[in-house]
Design brief:
Elements lengths: L3 H4 L16 H12 L2 H13 L16 E9 L5 H17 L5 E7 L2 E9 L3 H16 L5 H12 L15 H12 L3 H5 L12 E4 L4 E4 L2 H25 L7
Antiparallel strand pairs: 1-3, 2-3, 4-5
Length: 249
């Protein structure tokens, strides 16, 4: 195997890209470069990444060097929903277009390990799709709004009863927190439910989100009971309305 394939990526940052080989793949890369200036941008990015001491690749073969990085990365801890969403969405799109599949490089830094998407420098279809994806990210910071929303929800709600979203989240955990803080207890929250809270017979009501029992005055119990009844009626009417059997005014 000729080392010509690696010549593109070992010239170092700031140096001209070299091409010394005569192999068929080298010639193919050269044709693709002429047709797609975007490829030179990726090769320059590869040189820049390899020129940084803590991101230099070692032990790579010429075959490995056929892969060029894209400006699409994420931390392996997956603690940035938008970066994670763009990374996996782009990977899926590239897999559908690439003749040789996709790859990624791992670069260590003080905050963890960065995964960067890669495609082959001789895969014209993958490069064309990569250019489309990078262009799309220049116009909008998100490739898939639905996927990002799902990842943000999962990040903000890691477990049952937990919500770490900023103000404005509509989940029941956030509403529970806000209502409980407003009235100093659970009166308002329990009164909004469509089923009566569990009662222990001694005056305590059970909150499923808190997994705990709370004591209320007779007036508060009456308020909760009336609220639950109204909430249940609204739910029934909404159901009937959805089936065309009733209309809410």
């Amino acid at each position: 195997m000729s080392l010509a394939y690696a010549d593109y990526f070992t010239t170092g940052p700031g140096k001209p890209l070299a091409h010394k080989g005569t192999g068929s793949r080298s010639k193919r890369i050269e044709r693709i470069r002429k047709a797609m200036p975007f490829v030179d941008d990726l090769m320059s990015l590869s040189n820049e990444m390899d020129g940084t001491p803590w991101t230099q690749r070692r032990g790579y073969t010429a075959e490995d060097e056929m892969w060029v990085p894209l400006p699409i990365s994420h931390n392996d801890r997956e603690d940035d929903p938008r970066a994670d969403s763009n990374y996996y969405t782009a990977a899926e799109l590239l897999e559908d277009a690439a003749a040789f599949g996709t790859n990624f490089r791992m670069d260590a830094w003080p905050g963890g390990v960065i995964h960067t998407l890669m495609v082959r420098a001789d895969d014209a279809l993958a490069l064309r799709e990569a250019e489309r994806i990078v262009s799309a990210l220049q116009d909008s910071p998100v490739l898939d709004d639905e996927d990002l929303s799902r990842r943000e929800w999962e990040a903000n709600h890691p477990a049952l009863g937990e919500c770490y979203a900023e103000d404005g989240c509509e989940c029941e955990y956030a509403q529970h927190r806000e209502m409980s803080e407003e009235d100093g207890g659970h009166v308002e929250w329990l009164s909004r439910q469509t089923s009566h809270p569990e009662y222990d017979g001694d005056g305590d009501y059970y909150c499923e989100i808190c997994s705990d029992w709370f004591t209320f005055t007779d007036a508060e119990k009456e308020y909760i009971a009336n609220g639950v009844g109204e909430a249940r009626l609204r739910e029934i009417y909404a159901l009937l309305e959805g089936k065309g059997q009733a209309r809410l005014f």
